Amino acid sequence: MERTLIAVKPDGVQRRLVGQIIQRFEQRGFKLVAVFFDKVSEDLLSQHYGQLRTKPFYPSLLHYMTSGPVVAMVWEGHNVVQTSRSMVGHTNPAEARAGTVRGDFSIHVSRNVVHASDSQEGAQREIQLWFQGKELLNWDCCDQK
Predict the structure, then answer these.
(1) Which cellular component terms (GO) are annotated to the entry (predicted)?
(2) What are the chain's domains?
């Protein structure tokens, strides 16, 4: 079964949006298999955002992502990576459709509420970065029996 990493960024946590974001994924039929709630180290973030190191906004991204707690989650389901990207919406909230997480909640491109893995390969890499294998729970939903 396919898995993806969804992370509610510090602005989403500070604005108390975590429950609404979780609700959208549950209502879509995805299964939560891991949750992390804590402040994130610069070391983890530098690995996660390594491909952005040369970008001019990289230092402010690190500052923002360490400014408060993050809720990182692993969701499981059919086509979960692509569907999650659609649910989250465009990175720039000005271009995100209404009904998407960013379209409904984001206020600026640098404070865009949530991260979603961009591919199956990216999801696997990110999940291994954020979680140890034992933290990923295998369990059956009532509709899977």
Answers:
(1) lamellipodium; mitochondrial intermembrane space; mitochondrial matrix; nucleus; ruffle
(2) 3-130 (3.30.70.141)
